[in-house]
Design a protein that fits this description.
By secondary structure, the protein is α+β, with helices and mostly antiparallel strands. 33% of the residues lie in helices and 15% in strands. The longest helix is centred in the middle third of the chain and has 18 residues.
Length: 170
């Protein structure tokens, strides 16, 4: 495969440079995330964290989030799935997944590195993120996305398997 967007380092960046991520860039990344939701109930909330002590606390306490120690920002995608009964039962996880994927792609497209660190569905991780960020009980932190300028080159794992592709019929 030729080098291109699929081989950029932001596939799973765990090392970041000291360079800050600008506020307007973080806002544009969130806007890009919102191009993907399925239903317009809008139960989402976003937290932007750039304070070093908070990033470090999340890094230490949240499993699989050690890269937050060097990240210059994190987006926390939160939601209130109970805002709409039908939505909370059927679609909210798909919407948050679409938002997260679009955020990761937006970061990649502008040369930033990002990683999807899940909080939901782990009750322990949800409680931990709620406690650190003072998130109200009715709001569910779905994931934490460390963001920063990649430090070095990333290594993407090969996930493409030709035998998993079907044409026309199974």
């Amino acid at each position: 495969m030729k080098k291109g967007i699929l081989e950029t380092p932001s596939g799973k960046v765990k090392n970041y440079r000291a360079q800050a991520v600008q506020t307007d860039v973080l806002m544009r990344i969130i806007m890009a995330g919102l191009t993907g939701p399925l239903i317009n109930v809008q139960p989402w909330n976003f937290m932007i964290v750039t304070e070093r002590t908070i990033l470090d606390s999340l890094s230490i306490k949240l499993p699989h989030a050690k890269m937050l120690h060097k990240a210059k920002a994190a987006l926390i995608i939160c939601g209130t799935p109970e805002k709409n009964e039908l939505y909370s039962r059927d679609s909210w996880v798909m919407d948050y997944s679409a938002i997260t994927r679009n955020i990761l792609l937006a970061c990649n497209a502008i040369g930033l590195g990002a990683v999807w660190v899940g909080a939901y569905p782990s009750k322990e991780r949800i409680a931990l993120v709620r406690e650190i960020l003072n998130i109200p009980k009715e709001v569910v932190p779905v994931n934490v996305i460390p963001i920063g300028v990649p430090g070095g080159t990333g290594q993407l794992r090969e996930k493409f398997q030709k035998e998993n592709i079907r044409w026309e019929r199974w």
